[in-house]
Give the backbone structure.
Amino acid sequence: MHSAVLHFFDYVNAIILVYFLVTNVVYTVLMVFSLYTVSMHAKSAAHGAYADLLESPVTPPVALIVPAHNEEDAIVQTVMSLLEIQYPEKEVIVVDDGSTDGTVDKLVQKFHLLRMDLIYRPQATCKPVFAFYFNPERPELILISKENGGKADALNAGINMARSPYFCTVDADSIIEPQALLRLMAPVVESTVNTIVSGGVVRIANGCTLRNGRIVDVNLPKTWLERCQVVEYIRTFLFGRPGWNFLNATFICSGAFCLLHRETVLEAGGFSRDTVTEDIDIIATLHRFCKKNHRQYRMVFTTDPICWTEAPHTVGMLARQRRRWQLGLMQTVMKHNDMIFSPRYGMMGLASMPFHAYVEALGCVIEAFGTILIPFTFLVGAMPFSLFLLLMFLAFGYGTLLSVGSVLLEETTLRRYPKVRDVLMLVLFAMIENVGYRQMVTLFRAQGVIQYFTGLNKWELVVHKGFESRVLVEDEV
């Protein structure tokens, strides 16, 4: 009996060891590619001719689509930031998805909108539209009020309303920097290949100060939970996504700030309403559509554009967010499981999809189990000390090195946190984030996997504080 238990522990520990080895090898490869990509983006941004793009008559118009449901605390600041974006020709389309609070009223009052009949072509499937609001003195701003159908449904309504060849999805709790859209569009204009997706960096606005829809003072948030998320976002957007983009295997483009080609999205069927993370699903859908129809295309990730979003400020809200993200990831990889290891989809099928399916989607269960089992088997004498040290380094030490490296890379290239105190604090939290916070998030992700297999595929509402508490001045529009 004792021998059988030891063999069981050996078998499980071997699985955990292989998981951490594969994960860290892939992260190392992505890190190398990301270092090259980020440094090249930093150089091009330093010499970028954004003024030429701003004044060029051939710069494509863009529709900024903002799906909103009960976002009365943040929506005005978000719209103000969008109206201030430097871009030759843009539409700002806010889609109120059946809000029960004062979202519509606040927008109508702030921007003096009037209810009007506008031309609307329902090409993408969505719930019925109730009304359109418009101000002739601000022709670039349109408010749509519709029946609640979810975020993907609201985005489809926005696509139907848009007239521009490109559209940008923007979360209602996001603030975009003035030149961000120009920086997203630059690789689109410069490319000879049809660029159907252009993604950018997302940063956390908690702790920052706003004035008239713009971030005017960048500070770290005060709580440990929010600071850990800052480090996590930096690592994800500087070491993860640029690496996959280098391999032409983009898997995720954050819906908080993502530029897409309208016609291609419509041809692919628009945003799907059968997952809770439409921004993950649309990327896989576009890969599938373009490969199936033998389209030449590319997706790009630009590390310079900055979008600021509000992160969960309580453990409960963070748990809801991460469970939903993990549930959506599971839904997407299962929906597109035929792409896994399929050479038809290039590096997306051979590398990105398998990694996200087996490591990102299901790996959290192994990691959560390993977090408990590794110290237990060592304490009962079922694991050699050398193996224990190796697993601890792979599970905690290497992740800490990646986090610290991400912070240092951010500060040597983008430098979005100008205060020395904040940089030192980021380095400190990069070292401690892998102990405690990471395990907590892994548990939340594992719960999302359980939700998928138990059929609890529901959207969990994440309540934000809103930007109004951090606004210094809000001038009249």
In short: The mean pLDDT is 88. DSSP finds 15 helices and twelve strands in the chain.
